Amino acid sequence: MNTICYIVAMRAEATPFIREFGLKLNENFFAPLPCQLYEGEVNGTRLCVVLNGAQHNSDLVGCEAATLATSQAIQHLRPDLVINSGTCGAFESKGADIARVYIGNGVMFHDRRVPGDDAWTTQSIGNYPVWKGSHELALQLGLPEGKVTTGSSLDMQPCDLEVIQQHGGELKDMEGAAIAFVCSLYGVPVLFVKSVTDLVDHSADTFEVFSRNLAAAGESLKQINKQIISLLTRQNPATNNPE
Ligand code: ADE
Q1: What is the mean pLDDT of the segment spanning 125-151?
Q2: How far is the CA of 123 from the centre of ligand 1 (A)?
């Protein structure tokens, strides 16, 4: 692969990884947009991390910022593979645990309720493709797999849960499906690497639990991403083919 590009929403999710690989900030690369580019080289592959950026003293999370960052990243960096690395909520009833890392095996939206016919439902839910090599990678790394399900809120309303259950969602985030939507338009494969910060089937305050576990999730993401980059940048056509 020539170029691998991570799309990451929060600095806490990316900083351990950026430090590990010694990536450097390319200031004003996306000016006047808030997205930030960190880049470097690993085993001859250009490694980029694009952060959504910040506004009102907080990292920009959610689908709008993720759409913008992904679109800019693909247009300006021409990656062979996009990787969305970040945190998620997951279901304890399905065996999830804090800071466990999953590989996404599908991706959907859960909070776009558009009445009408099958075509509107299909568009609303999304169900975009993930990189074909995702399953093999999960096997190689011994990681569990799950379907990423995206909405614009940290909390989960009963109507969200209904859609998530109906469509088999497992890893609840705020960016994944927006990133996959853009990738599908450009025909760029996308891999999801998600670490659990909170268990959505617990009644606890989600934001408090999320904040408490954010650093641990960032560390587990770093460890797994190190292994992923090592595998993907090996000079081995069987493991580094983006198709
Ligand atoms: N990111 C981490 N935890 C989340 C949750 N419960 N919902 C949406 N995004 C998240």
Answers
A1: 98
A2: 23
